[in-house]
Fold this sequence. Notes:
The chain starts with 9 loop residues before the first helix and ends in a 20-residue tail after the last strand. It is α+β, with helices and mostly antiparallel strands. It has 5 helices and 3 strands, in the order αααααβββ.
Amino acid sequence: RNPHGTRYPLVALLTVAVCAVLAGATSFAAITDWLYDLDEPDQDRLGFTRGVPAATTMWRLLTRLDASVVSTALAGWLRSRTPPAPVRPRRYRTVIAVDGKTLRGARLPEGRQTHLLSALDTSTASFWPRSPSTPHHTKSQRSPRFSPRSKTRWAT
């Protein structure tokens, strides 16, 4: 056995990880399974010309990555491919679609639940990410983190 092992292109490994997760993979093994399920021409196009990595290779790489750096890099890449927002005449209003969820079974030690909130700017089709909001005792209470910044009409 070669003491240096096989070297795989980093870009190819990261591409496989992102594509597999987008396709529904939820584990390191599932990511590798996604790669093994590709036919040989697709593996070649991704950069795996000398075989595909083992599951342990994917695990070693992905556990060593800084998740915030990868997230920032992917968000920047996606933003670079998003067309700029069209300039709208002042008469149009900004419409933000807001959605909230309460996590089932995810209770804090004091018994409160975690709520997630996401918002979509309908003019640019850009999402504000889901993030945990302040927990509440009842679902009917509104999150204090979401408040209008300007004169806005609200519709339910």
